[in-house]
Write a structure and sequence with these properties.
Elements (H helix, E strand, L loop, with lengths): L5 E7 L10 E8 L5 E5 L5 E5 L2 H8 L5 E5 L2
Antiparallel strand pairs: 1-2, 1-5, 2-3, 3-4
């Protein structure tokens, strides 16, 4: 469990799928209970709830091509 709610961005350095592009591709919040919500940017926007930030990294990290960068 984190101490407080933290905002983050997904920074994509290499677009493995060819869909999302590079740069900041999503914004998110990690809540104090560990749940993470991701809001995808770009043409096909969506919002996804994940059980943890580790789940976000596992699914969207693409072996280091996308990084979680905490804003707060």
């Amino acid at each position: 469990m984190t101490q407080t709610t933290r905002r983050f961005q997904l920074q994509r350095d290499h677009d493995v799928s060819g869909i999302s592009g590079t740069g900041i591709v999503a914004e998110g919040v990690e809540f104090s209970d560990g749940v993470a919500v991701v809001r995808w940017l770009g043409e096909h926007r969506s919002t996804v709830v994940w059980p943890s930030i580790d789940s976000v990294r596992h699914i969207h990290g693409h072996g280091g091509a996308t990084r979680v960068v905490f804003v707060d």
